[in-house]
Amino acid sequence: MATRDIYFSFTKNTFLGVPVVAQWLTNPTRNHEVAGDLFNQLMRDDPSTVNGAEILMLGEMLTLPQNFGNIFLGETFSSYISVHNDSNQVVKDILVKADLQTSSQRLNLSASNAAVAELKPDCCIDDVIHHEVKEIGTHILVCAVSYTTQGGEKMYFRKFFKFQVLKPLDVKTKFYNAETDEVFLEAQIQNITTSPMFMEKVSLEPSIMYNVAELNSVNQDGECVTTFGSRAYLQPMDTRQYLYCLKPKKEFAEKAGIIKGVTVIGKLDIVWKTNLGERGRLQTSQLQRMAPGYGDVRLSLETIPDTVNLEEPFHITCKITNCSERTMDLVLEMCNTNSIHWCGISGRQLGKLHPSSSLCLALTLLSSVQGLQSVSGLRLTDTFLKRTYEYDDIAQVCVVSSVIKVES
């Protein structure tokens, strides 16, 4: 028995239980699509179907050309394979194997590697394979069938189906470091396919050191409404921006080491659906940002008013952190500027500060000039190394006339 006596058809991406024909293995004596003809015949024989529906709308959409087309990274490749005995003889020891060859590996997608004992005439062996596409580039589906004829002859044939896996999204990220340890992440996601996407979920999975708050919704009448509106579709070549705020967990924020060097933020998890309901999912690699360098001593503001009265004292709270690996003996000096004047004793001893330790200082100032003024003039001197650290423009306050009442 020649190889033309047995063949198999093959369909891609089953949708609502109806196979979508993408490619098939041919019998040299047959020149038609098996699954496509069966679907069209069922449409014609169904009394509830309008005449010609098999070539209109959904019917035509489901019977795709033989070419595979493109599949996008993150989608699930699903295929239905049917091996059919087209002869009048029983064949034995039928083994069907489906492998997917990529640029880096070869994957076995067959549900079972066991041979079927026999296959009677006009009978089929069916298999459904699934694979989540994780590589970009050329993929080749290798379908192979081996069997034994009644005369004991070993037969074997195989076919190759090539398709491209493309990149569906372009993701760009930007980091913004606040004066505190908070980090703001802006993610720009662009649809680079030719079809609209339904963005089902875009979330940030933070690293173990951070808590995350999504800033992509607003409160309207007590309800949380997305900033993108009621329609979550992303048209081709359109870009959408997502914003997240990350704050170190308390147990890590108290350690100065968390703010030094490269810090792992987390990874984005993106889930979408195409116009036929096919789902795709991508996860970025771990996002990293270069944390700002603070040197040996970090000075940050814990509290400061937004608006103050002219020539009236106001209070701020500073936090000093020893980021070095040695103990420091610090002295605080306060230097007046043309607009900002410090109230208190300059040159006072702050005492010893151990590595990764912090202390808070309550300081009093007043401004002699109206407008937006910068808080400057703090100096910290380490008496052990005789090294002075200068801190200018650490914050800004709006100074108004004392006649105007400042809202609390």
UniProtKB/TrEMBL annotation:
InterPro entries reported for this sequence: TRAPPC13 (IPR010378), TRAPPC13_C (IPR055428), TRAPPC13_M (IPR055429), TRAPPC13_N (IPR055427)
Span of domain Trafficking protein particle complex subunit 13 N-terminal: 33-165
Trafficking protein particle complex subunit 13 middle domain ranges (all copies): 169-292
Domain Trafficking protein particle complex subunit 13 C-terminal: 305-399
Binding partners and assembly: Part of the multisubunit TRAPP (transport protein particle) complex.
Protein family per UniProt: Belongs to the TRAPPC13 family.
Protein name: Trafficking protein particle complex subunit 13
Organism encoding this protein: Sus scrofa (Pig)
Gene, per the UniProt record: TRAPPC13
